[in-house]
Amino acid sequence: MDTAQEAPNTVILAQDEASLYLQATIQVVWHQRGQTPVIKLDPSRKSVHFYGALDLRNGQETAMMSPIMNGATTALFLQKLLLTYPDQRILLLWDRAPWHSGAPINELLEANPRLEILRFPPGSPDLNPQEHVWKAARTAISHNHRFARLEPLADAFLTYLTQTRFPSSMLDLYGYNQISPMFI
Questions:
Q1: How far is CA 115 from CA 9, 105, 106, 174, in A?
Q2: How far apart are CA 115 and CA 109, in angstroms?
Q3: pLDDT of residue 29
Q4: Looking at residue 184, what is its pLDDT?
Q5: Among candidate residues 23, 74, 63, 55, the one with its CA nearest the CA of residue 182
Q6: Selected residue with higher pLDDT from 143 and 115
Q7: pTM for this structure?
Q8: Is the Cβ–Cβ distance between 143 and 25 less than 8 Å?
Q9: Alpha-carbon distance 131 to 170, whole Å?
Q10: Which domains does the chain have, with CATH numbers?
Q11: How far apart are CA 179 and CA 166, in angstroms?
């Protein structure tokens, strides 16, 4: 509420990370009667990680693929957010993952006072709207997939994230949109 009144042009983002494996996750699917769908399984644990931030005002997703999740990579993603919104203050909502703290994060925050962090309470992923983005992307792309290699699966996942709008009602729940005339 203070943000809406004091800096109505502030971008409010919900951020999180997810891992994607070549191993297909099985989900109920409609299929022709008498023909069992075939899902290829991959015994490897090859994975790729995604950083994602959902703009709660307009549903736009900013995403980045990475082979690892650590403080340095998180700082790179924060830099990407600063470049995506070059002239606006950013309020970033995120959890308390270990890679959300440390020297690379502290240095970036000190150098960029227009980026403010607000942490979700411990053990509350249900509060983070970015979790719904991951669920939608998994349903659309990685559940029951037929990709033989991780790279095309990861590319399809990233494309879905960046080309889909993900509306969130979080700001409405807290009365932000009744105060802020800047709702997009």
A1: 13, 11, 11, 21
A2: 7
A3: 57
A4: 43
A5: 55
A6: 115
A7: 0.82
A8: yes
A9: 12
A10: 2-179 (3.30.420.10)
A11: 22
